Amino acid sequence: MAKASFFLIPLFLLFILALFSTRAATIEGLVGGRTMVKDVKTNKELQDLGKYCVEEYNRKLQHTARITKLLTFSQVVEAEKQVVSGIKYYLKISATTYSGAPKLFDAVVVVKPWVDTKELLNFAPSPSTKIKQFW
């Protein structure tokens, strides 16, 4: 009887662990997967992050191409986040071009709060043309 309980306890604990991990994955999405961020327009941290992305893009553009026709940040209109080695944000940013036309851009930025760093990985015009739905 002692041998049976010796094997049943670890199996029971493994079952409980599996049950809770799959339940958490279905509630919050897959572990390591992207999740939508709610209330993007009122989230000051995300809006500041979007502004950082535009400023960093402008800085790199001025440095590499010596272009003075820069973008002006308007707002982050959509966001997803993914837990990696830090938090990776996928942002859809509305910005105004030098000609005054609003345009959407997709940005990917990684934030590591424990070392107080941000790194812009990608910033490009968005293939989405639905800019009016965000206003």
TrEMBL record:
InterPro entries in the cross-refs: Cystatin_dom (IPR000010), Cystatin_sf (IPR046350), Prot_inh_cystat_CS (IPR018073)
Superkingdom, natural source: Eukaryota
Listed PROSITE patterns: CYSTATIN
Range of residues in the leader sequence: 1-24
Residue span(s) of domain Cystatin: 29-126
Keywords assigned by UniProt, alphabetized: Protease inhibitor, Signal, Thiol protease inhibitor
One term of GO molecular function: cysteine-type endopeptidase inhibitor activity
Keyword Signal (UniProt): yes
Gene3D superfamilies referenced in this protein's UniProt entry, alphabetically: 3.10.450.10
Pfam family membership, one: SQAPI
Protein name: Cysteine ase inhibitor B-like
Organism name: Olea europaea subsp. europaea
